[in-house]
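Exercise 7.
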Amino acid sequence: MSNRHPVDELADLRASIKAREKRAEALRDDILAGRCSHVGDEYAASMHDQSKTWIDQTALRRHFGARALAPFVVTRTIAVVRIAERKPEKELD
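Solution. The predicted structure, written as tokens, is:
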């Protein structure tokens, strides 16, 4: 448990995750570019290509029209929590 307010702790965690993802990307780039050995003290890296396929919705709408695609479009509602840094309150004289 933390004495930190949940909103503040969430902001901290998101900042930490973002920093770790940035570091992970830099390490991945180093491994792929051959700037380091692929074998560490505890782990070994292997590289391979992987294909990913997706549907280009913009191209489909352009080709077939939005009306033709409407029966296949699904909308889902999700809960989103956005965190914004608070501005210091101005002191009243």
